[in-house]
Design a protein that fits this description.
With 373 residues, the protein is mostly helical. It is built from 14 helices and two strands. Strands 1-2 form a two-stranded antiparallel sheet. The radius of gyration is 21 Å and the shape is globular.
Length: 373
Amino acid sequence: MRGLDYYLPAMAMLFIQFIYAGMSLGTRTVLLQGMSPRVFIVYRQVFATIVLAPVAYFSGRMSGSYSLNLRSFSLIFLTSLIGITLNQNLYFEGLYLASASIASAMANLVPALTFVIAAFTGMERVNIRSLRTLAKIVGTVICISGAASIALLKGPKLLNAENLPSKSIMGSEGQNWLLGILFIFGSNCAWALWLILQVPASASHPDHLSFGFWMCLMATLQSAAVTVFLEPDPNAWKINSLLEFGCSLYAGVMGSSVLISLQAWCISQRGPLFSAMFNPLFTVIVTVLAALLLHEEIYIGSLIGAIGVIIGLYVVLWGKAEEVVKAKDERDPKSMVNTTEEGKVLINESSEKAYCKTDLEEPLLSAKSSSHY
C-alpha cells in the first residue's frame, strides 16, 4: 500500500492550481474595480523582489554566483524583458479586456507555441516520419484552432456582459473582446519565447534563486519605466483598498516566489510531464469560479474552443511523452521501462526522477512551462 509520500506531488500540484486560480480571479477583480494593470505588475514585482532578495543573497554568497558578468546581465535582462515585462503587460491587459476563464484556457497554448519556436530555432528535433513528432504538430494545430475558435466563434452568450471601467489603454467597449484575445495570444508567445531564452540564461547564471531575484529586480525596473510612460496620472499609483494591496502581495509572494519553488519540487519528484498534465485543471477551476463569483460572460463558441485547446495540449504532451519514453529506453531499457501483458508502457518512478534532470534541455515542457504567472 502506497504511503502519503507517493501522493504528495499530486496534492501539491492540485494546491498549485487552486492558488493560481485564486490569483487570476483576484487580479481580475481589482482590475475591474479600477486598478491599473501596469501598476499592478510593478507592485507585484516589487513584492517578489523583496521576498527573494535575502534568500538569493545568502544562496549566492554560498555558491559564489551572486554577482553578474556582462553576458549574464544581458541574457537575464532580455529574459526578464520578454518573459515578465512584455508577457505580463500583454497578459493582464488581455485579462482585463477578455475574461479570467478565457485567459486560463489560452494558457494551455504555451507548450504548443514553445514547440513551434523551438522547432524553428533547432532546439526541438522535427522528424515528420516520427509518430511523436506528428502528434506534437497535430496537437499544435488543434491548440491554435481552439484559440481561434475562442476568439471568433462566440455563439450564444450564457451570462450577461460586464461594464468595464476605463482603465485599459485600449478603452472599454465590448468590441475589445477580440483585442483582449490577441493580447493574451501575444502574451503566450512571449511566455514560450521566455522558456527558450531561459536555456542560455540559466546556463550563464546557474544559481536559480539568484537568477530569479535578478529577473524580478530587472522586471521591476522595466515595468516601472513602462508604467511611467503609459500612466501619466500619478494618482494611478495609489493603492485605494486593502483588496488591491492584498492581491498585489499575494501575486508577488505566492505567484513569483513560493509557487516557483513548490512547482520545482513537484517536477523534481515526478518530472515536467506530470506537472504539465495539471494545466487544464486550472482552466476548469477558473471557469467555474469566474462564472459563480464574478458572473463572467461565457460563450458556447469559447467553451468549445477551450475544450479544443485542452485536447490539443494533451496530444502535444502525448507526443512529448513518447519521446521521453524512448530516451529512457535508450539509457537503460531494463530498469527504466516495464511492459505489461497488454503492451502498455509503464515508467518506474525512480527513472522519472532521474530523467527530469536531463529534460532541462527540452524547452517544450520545462520546469516553468506549466505556470502562466
